[in-house]
Amino acid sequence: MTPPALHFLIFAALLLLSKTRAAADSSQTEYTLTNPKLPPPNTLSTSKKYEGSSDLVNLRYHMGPVLSSSPINIYLVWYGRWPNYQKLLIKDFILSISPAAAAAKPSVSDWWRTVSLYTDQTGANVSRTVLIAGEHSDHLYSHGKSLTRLSVQQVIGTAVKSAPFPVDHKNGIFLILTADDVTMQDYCRAVCGFHYFTFPSMVGYTMPYAWIGNSAKQCPEVCSYPFAVPGYMAGGGPAALKPPNGDVGVDGMISVIAHELAELSTNPLVNAWYAGEDPTAPTEIGDLCEGLYGTGGGGGYIGQVMRDNKGRTFNMNGRRGRRFMVQWVWSPVLKACAGPNALD
Length: 344
Prior knowledge:
The protein is an alpha/beta fold. It is 25% helix and 19% strand. The chain has 7 helices and 16 strands. A 5-stranded mixed β-sheet has the order 4-3-6-9-8, sandwiched between helices. A 3-stranded antiparallel β-sheet has the order 1-11-12, with no helix packed on it. Strands 2-10 form a two-stranded antiparallel sheet. A hairpin with a 4-residue loop joins strand 15 and strand 16. The longest helix has 27 residues. The chain is globular, with a radius of gyration of 21 Å. The protein starts with a helix and ends in a 6-residue tail after the last strand.
């Protein structure tokens, strides 16, 4: 082969590679901005919701710990039957929180940066790094398909013994995720998720935990908003948005997981960051921004978000090319709801 011919082939290969990369980049960034007006969410905490900024929000620090030890180790409990693709989607979100996760901007890691602004009394910030340290699948519904706030601790106790999970007082938290055929006390009526801490009498020791359910078959219009709207809106008014990963229940669940992880990290023992005088019903950093996903939110608008060429709606990017729709959280610096896709 003569040198000119070799040069030509190298040039042609580089040109083809350049076009391929450009096409890939184009497919990743091809989206439009939108601020859809939807019927207001059937919110579970209307009295807690503050849109935009406010000097009236008295979010105070009550001298308790935050999750400052790095990394935050999540011990996942899958309760019920979970398809692998749903597990992978949720784990991709969790693993997108850490700064090491490679993702386009605006990213899940950028969203967590607001959470990491919260400190304890020593000035230590909430950790930026979140890992999945262990998993347990309870596909036989060891405590039945109807759970209570107390029996969910029995679920944790079973997982601790079966996995087994280590006693990880310094870095650990439990995350219990229930399948779409599992009911929970007050689910849909008063909560989409909650967090608390385990009792030694139930689990053997005290450790923070959060529970979130898949609402797909029970109340998607409540817990998977804005990917489902109330039934009375069918046939008239704004339609529900298309979820970024095509799963109304799990895409909606991911925003609730984000909400609970943010609050668990800043108020793990219910004595750190919250507003109000009642620690048994605290207004926390996720509650203050419920239903807000972008700039210009409020009054029925969810805020400026992105829509891809297939009509799927999202407001941040994650690892492995994933896209997610996650509510904003309250910033202690801006004294306003904040997110990585903010336009101002």
